[in-house]
Fold:
Amino acid sequence: MALLLTLSSTAGAGQLPVYRVLSEGGTPSYLVGTMHSEDPRVLARLAHLTPLIEKVDTVVIEMVPDAVALLAVAAATLLPVDQNLRGVVGEAGYWALRDAAEERGIPEAVLNRLKPWAAAVTLGMPPAKTGRFLDMEIYLAAQQRGRPVVGLETPAEQLALFDDMPTALALALLDDTVKNAAQQPKQLEELTEAYLQGDPDLLYRTARAQYAKMPPALVQWYTGQVIEQRNARMLERLAPRLAAEAVLVAVGAMHLGGDTGLVAGLEQLGYRVEPWSEMSVR
Structure:
């Protein structure tokens, strides 16, 4: 499950999921699906986007990753000072967590301070090496080119997805992450290869095949809260900006495909949304 939060011919020859968004008489905007990954194959796709950043007025991302936002996220992962993870999950469950964290090089002192959902995300994601993922690179590229960057969500809204989870559901997420740790490298490669094909619907199907194996309550939470509810919020906030100026919108690729994705939503609002490639540049 935690891997799915990254979203989002051969993989090395693929393209980014990019769409051109057109309205009658308007300047084209662009919709980009990103993947929260340090994989060099993913980061190499930034070169496809820099010409588009230069063509638009504003860059729109999920959340602006400035220092204030990153500090808020870091603080929100910690349990209250009078609690620890060992006490929340119980002795039997904690030892399995400690072993999994040790394999990842996560000190027990750090693990024991994390909320259950934060421990699940930490253990379920590839270890960070550089902190330079595609979303951050887009943000920095926009700043370097003097383009304003705005977020579709606030840190508080993103964190509420997890902080509002019932404790039992957060523990189920953590348990599922630990039990499936051995499968994570294979699952991540499947998601990355699907992403690099540049087809959001393929990525959507690949991810659905992975999370369909999880407990039904987690599937319902992920589909409803992480994807569909946020799709609706993003679309509502994106619509007036698209009507006002040319923008490049970069959000997790899982938010593009499917019946409730942004591509379908923009089409329902009357926009023409078409796949873009470098051959499309005019």
About this structure: The first strand starts at residue 18 and ends at 22. Residues 2-77+131-163+184-280 form one domain. The CA atoms of residues 5 and 36 lie 8 Å apart.
